[in-house]
Amino acid sequence: KLAQHRDVCLCLFDVMLPGIDGFEVCRRVRATNPHIGIIMLTARSQEMDKVTGLISGKISLRYNNIRRFTMKPVYNRILLKLSGEVLAGTLGHGIDFDTVQEICSVVKTVADMGVQVGIVVGGGNFWRGRSSGKMDRTRADNMGMLATAINSLALQEALIQTGNDAVVMSALDIQRMVESFNKDKAVKYMQNGQVVIFSCGTGSPFFSTDSGAAL
Ligand code: UDP
Q1: CB atoms < 10 A from the CB of 133, how many?
Q2: pLDDT tens digits along 108-162
Q3: What pTM does this model have?
Q4: How far is the CA of 158 from the centre of ligand 1 (A)?
Q5: Which of 11, 73, 165, 215 is the most buried (most CB within 10 A)?
Q6: Could you tell me if 29 and 36 are in contact, meaning their C-beta atoms sit under 8 angstroms apart?
Q7: Distance in Å, CA 91 to ligand 1 centroid
Q8: Does ligand 1 come within 6 angstroms of the Cβ of 89?
Q9: Where in the chain does DSSP place strands (E)?
């Protein structure tokens, strides 16, 4: 009844209710008011509880301890492949640092959940070897790989500014700027909560950063 009232914009209730379960209440509230916010408090944290809750229309499921989300990360470690073009934002070319910061704030949210994050970034916002026309393909691809290094440094800067330590590793040796790739070190950095940005794809021409991400 309360939820039907126009001034109510948020419902907060338990799943375990006398005579009716909270999911059913949620369904009924949602049916009468599609815009109302619904938060359920519950100790039930099974995957199916979350699914049932979401289907019935709640916006979030929380423990009785309100500060803790029950949503646990599904993966301990993720690899995010970013195409170079996304870093250009509305500029369409090069780097729009506001966009890079926006992306990095999402990455930080994920890292703050305890998820280890690796990023493979492309270079298409600057250069793609295969679009180089008459150029020698190997030289053109080397240019493309350097473009990924530029993007990696932008991501590193944005992550550090966002408050998440980040390391750039490269498949090509450009050690005065970034570390050379080393699998054990990369794992250690990620376990330490540092985001590892993998630049220069596979380090070989005639490949793409997608191949690097797959490797
Ligand atoms: N590249 C390469 N070897 C690799 C990865 C990349 O030669 O292992 C070069 C290639 O010229 C490619 C460019 O770097 O076109 C940029 O990478 P990609 O095209 O994958 O960038 P994205 O499309 O993801 O922005």
Answers
A1: 6
A2: 999 999 999 999 999 999 999 999 999 999 999 999 999 999 999 999 999 999 9
A3: 0.73
A4: 22
A5: 11
A6: yes
A7: 20
A8: no
A9: 10-14, 16-17, 20-21, 37-41, 60-62, 77-82, 116-121, 166-170, 179-180, 195-199
Q: What is the pLDDT of residues 38-96, one digit of tens each?
A: 777 776 666 666 666 666 655 554 444 444 444 578 899 999 999 999 999 999 999 99
**In Å, how far from its chain's centre is CA 109?**
8
Query: Could you identify the residue written with the tokens 């944290």?
Result: 45
What single-letter DSSP state applies at residue 129? G
Q: Which atom of ligand 1 is nearest to the CA of 203?
A: 8
23 closest CA partner among 33, 10, 32, 14: 14
pLDDT tens-place string over residues 22-54? 778 878 887 887 777 777 777 666 666 666 666
The conformation of residue 130, written as its DSSP 8-state character, comes to: G
Query: What's the CA gap between 74 and 155, in Å, rounded?
Result: 25
Give the strand pairing for 116-121 and 77-82.
parallel
- Joined together, the tokens standing for residue 146 give 């350097």
Spatial distance between the Cα atoms of 102 and 90, rounded to a whole number of angstroms: 13
